[in-house]
Request: fold
Amino acid sequence: MATEAPPPPRDGAETETGPVQPTTEQFIEVQESEEFGELRRTYRSFAFPLTIAFIAWYLLYVLLSNYAGDFMGTKLIGNVNVALVLGLGQFATTFLIAWLYSRHAAAKLDPRSEAIKHRMEADA
Reply:
């Protein structure tokens, strides 16, 4: 099936669909900049501790499920036991972490990354 769309430009010139792409040298320059390093540190200072904490929490749940069956089977209310509450807690913490990350990214990461992006597009 043939289309009526013209072929993409071959020379890298700016088209109606977007700006010219930055060069490899420009990407390397930005990657080595202090501003990009600060953006990376801000991301890592949030993501790494939460990732480690969640993995530890998940492994604790798995270990308790395997080796502390009596504890996990303890009934709390009716037929609701510790294992069910901790299992639902896994889902709750997953959504909590996603919500916290979206707030963190919107407040601290997105403005910095947008500034870098706009500067690169203007320099290209």
Remarks:
- The first helix runs from residue 24 to 31.
- The first strand starts at residue 75 and ends at 77.
- The helical segments are 24-31, 34-67, 69-72, 82-123.
